[in-house]
Amino acid sequence: MGPGGAGEGEVMPPLTPNLSPQAGRGSGFLRLDRLDKHFGALHVTRDVSLDVPKSEILALLGPSGSGKTTVLRLVAGFETPDSGRVVVEGEDVTRLPPERRHFGVVFQHYALFPHMTVGQNVAFGLESGSVPREERAARVAEALGAVDLAGFESRRVTEISGGQQQRVALARALAPRPRVLLLDEPLSNLDPTLRGRTRRELKRLIRSIGITTLFVTHEQEEAFELGDRVALMNAGRLEQVGSARELYESPASRFAAAFIGRSSVVPAHWEKAIGRARLPGGAAWPAAPAGDLVDGSPVDVVVRPESLGFATARNGTAAEGRVVERRFAGRETYFAVLLDAGVEVEVLAAPDAAQVGWNVFVAPAHGGPSPRAYPRIAGVE
Ligand SMILES: Nc1ncnc2c1ncn2[C@@H]1O[C@H](COP(=O)(O)OP(=O)(O)OP(=O)(O)O)[C@@H](O)[C@H]1O
Ligand SMILES: [Mg+2]
Q1: What whole-number distance in Å separates Cα of residue 182 and Cα of residue 170?
Q2: Calpha distance 48→82 (Å, rounded)
């Protein structure tokens, strides 16, 4: 059991915004520069700027409807922004039609042509392009080889597995040797087991080609496993861009904190002098403040399960509650604890640390990322 709680004098440093360097710096191979797009009255992307270095795999993560596909379509050229630019290798391609950008695209619901063979599907992207007829067979073979489907040319797409179909779609996008690869939830058609395996294969494949890739997903696990960096979107805006670890350990916003990983949200009041959040029951939790919080103002403390522990006795950081649920997860167990203040929190501890029905003390534990205090926004759950 972790006694939990930092020393009384310990004040957490304030959060620093963690957005990537904005466009204008010019270092990126692919640059999105302040992209704005409306569909009628709906403001779908707002001021989206990203710098993607050569050969990086960048995951664009966010909830459904946050504008991920729209960003990808703006980059691909299937939509035109109201304002802002798309720049590749220093070339402004914002007004170029998709086929002149030389990007490979795999859509959210990639459609293979069922009446065609694997080889005909892969050759499809070469037919309208500049690849001479006599070179096409070699290109198809090259692309199929890259996705580990060498020799599959004459197979029917209806007679191969889902994972293989996904790779055919990828080969079709890669055959013209694009300079940028754009993927929109390319694994969403696969069942969970196949998705995990295909994800790892896909990462190895993109790495081996070394192609700069922008990849859309609404699944955190996928973004974390595939992305060198993750760009988190919310309601058309980029909330944060960084490594998986940065997003998990130093979320730049309440949204990022709650969207990434497991967490509990505890309403409290900020006590500026001691740098702690005062819970309704009286416990004062050390927390990293998001920005300059006003003394006494209402805050939401967002805390990871591994950042909470059971305290053995009543002390300044211990909040009282009752264990209402126990979820075994291998080496450790998640305990749902209903605090006397009426809020439920999740605590990660050893399986024998407590039983359902026990009265316990919950306090911030050493080890996990520090709890974070955000200004409370009315109406946000
Ligand atoms: N062509 C369009 N016309 C009007 N509204 C659109 C159009 N395309 C998208 N939208 C709206 O724009 C918003 C963002 O859509 P978008 O497809 O970019 O979201 P997304 O993040 O890709 O979501 P999902 O995870 O569900 O695929 C949504 O509210 C959607 O309804
Ligand atoms: Mg989408």
Answers
A1: 10
A2: 12
Which residue's CA lies nearest to atom 7 of ligand 1? 39
Q: Tell how far the Cα of 161 is from the centroid of ligand 1, in angstroms.
A: 29
In angstroms, the CA 236 to CA 252 distance is 16
Q: Which residue has the tokens 């002098």?
A: 273
Q: Which ligand 1 atom minimizes the distance to the CA of 62?
A: 21
Residue 256 in any domain: the answer is no
Do residues 179 and 56 share a domain? yes
Residue 68 Cβ contacting ligand 1 at under 6 Å: yes
CATH value at residue 232: 3.40.50.300
Domain-located, residue 7: no
Rounded distance between C-alpha atoms, residue 355 and residue 276, angstroms: 29
CATH number, domain containing residue 290: 2.40.50.140
Per residue of the chain (381 residues), give pLDDT as tens: 333 333 333 444 444 333 433 333 446 899 999 999 999 999 999 999 999 999 999 999 999 999 999 999 999 999 999 999 999 999 999 999 998 999 999 987 778 999 999 999 999 888 776 788 888 999 999 889 888 899 999 999 999 988 888 889 989 999 988 999 999 998 887 778 878 888 888 888 899 889 999 999 999 999 999 999 999 999 999 999 999 999 998 898 899 998 999 999 999 999 999 999 999 989 999 999 988 999 999 999 999 999 999 998 888 999 999 999 999 988 899 999 999 989 999 999 999 999 999 999 999 998 889 999 999 876 555
Q: Ligand 1: which atom is nearest the Cα of residue 66? A: 21
Gyration radius of the chain's alpha carbons: 25
Question: CA triplet 267, 19, 32: central angle to 5 degrees?
Answer: 135
Q: Per the confidence metrics, is the pTM higher than 0.85? A: no
- The response to whether residue 193 sits with its C-beta less than 6 Å from ligand 1 reads no
10 Å Cβ neighbour count for 284?
Answer: 20
Which of the ligands is closest to the CA of residue 70?
Answer: 1
